[in-house]
Design a protein that fits this description.
mainly beta; Phage_T4_Gp19; about 150 residues; 1 helix; two-stranded antiparallel sheet; structural molecule activity; Phage tail protein; CHP02241; elongated; 10 strands
């Protein structure tokens, strides 16, 4: 089935989104929250001898936090357990893809990540005395963003 891609006009923002995640083309499904998507420039300070009025701030490298995706437990959870099962026999660094989409399927933004490693899956706390939505969380590490696609 051909993939239809809808893109929002540049001036439109996302109000209600979900995040579709794939690792090397293998879908992990849609998630309702995404935390940690970002980058930080690590700064190093240097004091210059004889110049007491200035401390140099020098950029050294980029640091990427782990990204956590959460969602209610459902049929798509099997895709995550299959991924971690395959990792038991070894894992090679992969490319990850995140698409932020509206409920109607329009893509708001997308990111491609290099050298992705799934590092943690946290399942729901099961307690029959406290009925609530069962959620799961998947955490991935990565080594940066790949340049955007030019169309």
């Amino acid at each position: 089935m051909p993939k239809v891609e809808l893109v929002l006009p540049e001036d439109q923002t996302a109000v209600s989104v979900h995040f579709v995640v794939t690792i090397d083309g293998a879908p992990l499904g849609a998630f309702t929250s995404c935390e940690g998507l970002g980058c930080e420039v690590v700064m190093e300070t240097r004091e210059e001898g004889g110049n007491n009025g200035l401390v140099w701030q020098l950029p050294t490298r980029l640091k990427y936090p782990n990204i956590k995706f959460s969602r209610p437990l459902g049929k798509q959870s099997e895709q995550v357990s299959a991924l971690f099962s395959r990792m038991a026999s070894g894992y090679t660094l992969a490319t990850g893809h995140i698409q932020a989409m509206t409920a109607s399927g329009a893509i708001v933004a997308e990111w491609e990540l290099e050298k992705v490693v799934p590092v943690r899956w946290t399942g729901p706390s099961l307690n029959a005395d406290q009925p609530k939505v069962l959620t799961e969380t998947v955490e991935i590490a990565h080594h940066g963003f790949l340049p955007g696609k030019k169309g």
